[in-house]
Amino acid sequence: MKNLKYILAAVFLFSSLAGTHAVIFSALCTDYPTGAGEAGDWDYNANTETWNQAGEIPDSSDEVWIDGGCYVRIFDGLHTLSKLEMRADESGANLEISGGSLEITGIAKFEGTDNDIVVSGGDLTIYWAYGGIDGTNGTDGVAGANGTNGIDGTDGDDGADGAQGIQGKIGPQGPAYPDGITTNLMCFSTDQTIGSQGKQMGLGQQAGAHSLVGVISPFPGGAQVMKLVVKVSQGKGVDGWAQLYHDRPLSDPDYDEGFPIGPVCELHAADNVSVCEVPIADGILTLHDSLSVFVVTDSGNFEGASACVLIDPDGAD
Questions:
Q1: Full DSSP string of 147-195
Q2: What's the CA gap between 114 and 132, in Å, rounded?
Q3: How far apart are CA 197 and CA 241, in angstroms?
Q4: Where are the domains of the chain?
């Protein structure tokens, strides 16, 4: 161990306490002792070398200060103090109890973080203490309640188109017009979201091109589309529009995109659903023509959509 050669200035404090005097004993900094009765022991040589208060041993009304770099050992006897201060600065203060006992009836104060108290034999009793090295952290407490939900984030990009679903059945035949000409109904739907990029909607499915989801018409050439009706499920109340498409000629290089029929059907923002309908005056179909409905938002998403067209198989005449 380091051989400490410093000697601290003596500090004395006398006061009247029940007919006795209280003394502050300031330990002299000594070499580390190697056995009982050597320099640094509590009552070595009547304390003339261990304590600055020569000829006395601290008692129950006294205070003991052990400064940084000092070493004091109790090896015998029963001792009581009113206060103990371990006054470490850059070097730790050291107290060893190798026999006997020490009881602190007042406060045990530990300054700094390098103090060292060793009980190698005998007993040490401390009732009040403060300062010293921090103890280890206790276990975590019970988690608190969840906070309130934050604001919804912005909509992410649309995912890739899924595989085309199985084509559904043709809808039921519509009612007859007053002139006796029978009209028929064809319908389209999707339960997938539709955003600002827009999607072609077929029967139970949607895609990026008319040719992938177009529903074939069972009517002869010359049949005419009379009306388009569209309904969308609103997610956050957004505007958009829809339009009916049919096939381009097979020789057309843009065949996959289809060709629009009739006017745009405006869809306005609403809390739950938006509905629009438009008449179609030039909706003449060819034999084995196919139909789809293009749906798009100005921003945000529709949560799903459906549409129906009214068709006169005999044409408008």
A1: ----PPPPPPPPPPP-PPPPP-PPPPEEEEPTTS-EEEEEEEEE-S-B-
A2: 8
A3: 12
A4: 16-131, 173-312
Helix, strand or coil, per DSSP, at residue 212:
helix
- pLDDT of 65 reads 79
Coil, strand or helix: which one is 103?
strand
* H helix or E strand, kind and range, residue 65: strand 63-67
For residue 4, what pLDDT is reported?
A: 26
**Backbone torsions φ then ψ of 257, nearest 5 degrees:** -80, -20
Q: What angle do CA 309, 312, 317 make, to 5 degrees?
A: 135
Predicted pLDDT at 87: 73
**Which pLDDT belongs to residue 207?**
92
What integer pLDDT is reported at residue 146 of this predicted model? 87
Residue 94: what residue type?
N
Residue 14: its pLDDT value, please? Answer: 26
Residue whose pair of structure tokens reads 């608190």 in the numeric block = 144
* Residues of the chain falling short of pLDDT 50: 1-21, 45-49
d(CA 51, CA 65): 10
Rounded Cα–Cα distance for residues 40 and 42 (Å): 7
Tell the residue number behind the tokens 């070595």, with chain if given.
Answer: 44
Return the number of other C-beta atoms located less than 10 Å from residue 205's C-beta: 25
* Residue 53: strand, helix, or coil: coil
Distance (Å, rounded) from C-alpha 313 to C-alpha 88? 104
- Tell me which residue of 242, 251, 244 sits closest to 284, measured CA to CA: 244
| CA-to-CA separations, 143 to 108, 137, 138, 149, 150, in angstroms, rounded | 36, 17, 15, 17, 19
Location of structure tokens 């975590």: 140
pTM more than 0.85: no
Class in CATH terms, 173-312? mainly beta
